[in-house]
From TrEMBL:
This is Phosphate transport system permease protein. Gene3D superfamilies: MetI-like. InterPro entries: MetI-like, MetI-like_sf, Phosphate_PstC, Phosphate_Transport_Permease. It comes from Actinomyces slackii. The gene is pstC. GO terms for biological process: phosphate ion transport.
Length: 357
């Protein structure tokens, strides 16, 4: 007759070993003795104690990164302190102290710097108005329309234009662009001379419009290269979804690419504007200077920029005249800082509405 196992025995449990029948104190002693036995070869796991590997490298990298960021802040603070310290005598000088400075023509400091600020902003804004639409078109062609080999060649060409020195652009504008634009400006004056913007043109074409066109060519590579890289980062899913819904190539770019790259376009434009604000040699070689505040962009001898004026007058400057020129440089520094701050504010406001989010 078959016997059934006790009901408290676990079904399928392993048979009790000799150690399981010992008291609990003896079992603990056996476990401790077993833990102290040497493991066979290949079964022992090496446990290292002490510093984590790579901690020294992390500390060195962190220190170098922090030092680089701190160095930028220190250099900026030193430049600002130098400009403020050297410009204070010009800001606090009386009219009698400024009368001996020939290039100021008997004007006060702010009366002298106001036309320079106007000329700087006017030339930069005209250059930006010409360069940004052209840069967007070139960037779209390279990133979405051109064949691969042609796009690579155009990309290299755009990058090469950014490496050309400004003096070369100045020579190109003075020797080739000025004679080329002379008949066009004459025709504009004859046809649209009733508009002050195109009135009173006289050859040669060494005016603010020609200088602005040269600036537009100079900032074109910077803006185009930045916008091209932003357009290439557009998610393919957005483009394919737009095309799948029946959009044309133009509609896909308007719905997916341009909204995604809006903040990048603004950033690239501000980079180009910063380059145009501080450009010196090309403007100095092309523009016939003047201290007027008007919109007669085709008339020579009406405008001047801060950077070109400093370069033109600094060679013969001494004493208080040096402080005056440095003060105008401080004004340009403040304008550039304000432009960059405004660009960051605009980008921050539009970031939450961009296609990346």
């Amino acid at each position: 007759m078959a016997t059934t196992p006790p009901h408290d025995a676990a079904e399928g449990a392993p048979p009790a070993g000799p150690d399981d029948a010992r008291p609990a104190s003896q079992q603990e002693a056996g476990l401790a003795e077993r833990a102290q036995r040497p493991e066979p070869d290949g079964a022992q796991t090496a446990i290292r104690t002490g510093r984590a590997p790579g901690r020294t490298g992390n500390r060195v990298f962190t220190g170098l990164s922090f030092g680089a960021g701190l160095l930028i802040m220190v250099v900026l603070a030193l430049v600002t302190a130098f400009l403020v310290g050297q410009a204070l005598p010009a800001f606090t000088a009386s009219s009698a102290d400024l009368e001996d400075i020939s290039f100021m023509r008997g004007q006060g400091f702010w009366s002298y710097v106001a036309p320079l600020v106007f000329g700087t902003l006017l030339s930069s804004l005209i250059a930006l108005a010409v360069a940004v639409p052209l840069s967007i078109a070139v960037a779209l062609f390279i990133s979405h329309f051109a064949p691969r080999r042609l796009a690579q060649g155009l990309g290299y060409l755009v990058d090469l234009l950014a490496a050309i020195p400004s003096v070369v652009f100045g020579l190109w504008g003075f020797l080739w662009l000025v004679p080329l634009l002379d008949p066009l400006y004459s025709q504009l004056t004859e046809t649209l001379g009733f508009i002050p913007l195109f009135a009173d043109y006289t050859a040669p074409a060494k005016n603010i419009m020609t200088a602005s066109l040269v600036l537009a060519v100079m900032i074109l590579p910077i803006i185009t290269a930045t916008i091209r890289e932003v357009f290439l980062q557009t998610p393919k899913l957005h483009e394919e979804a737009s095309l799948a819904l029946g959009a044309t190539r133009y509609e896909m770019i308007r719905q997916a690419v341009l909204p995604f790259g809006r903040s990048g376009i603004i950033s690239a434009s501000m980079l180009g504007l910063g380059r145009a604000l501080g450009e010196t040699m090309a403007v100095l070689m092309i523009l016939s200077p003047g201290l007027g505040i008007n919109l007669r962009v085709l008339q020579a001898g009406q405008h001047q920029t801060i950077a070109a004026n400093i370069a033109a007058q600094f060679r013969e400057a001494f004493g208080m005249s040096v402080n005056v020129l440095i003060a105008t440089g401080l004004v340009l520094f403040i304008i550039t800082f304000a432009v960059n701050s405004m660009a960051r504010w605009v980008i921050a406001r539009r970031a939450e509405f961009s296609g990346a989010n």
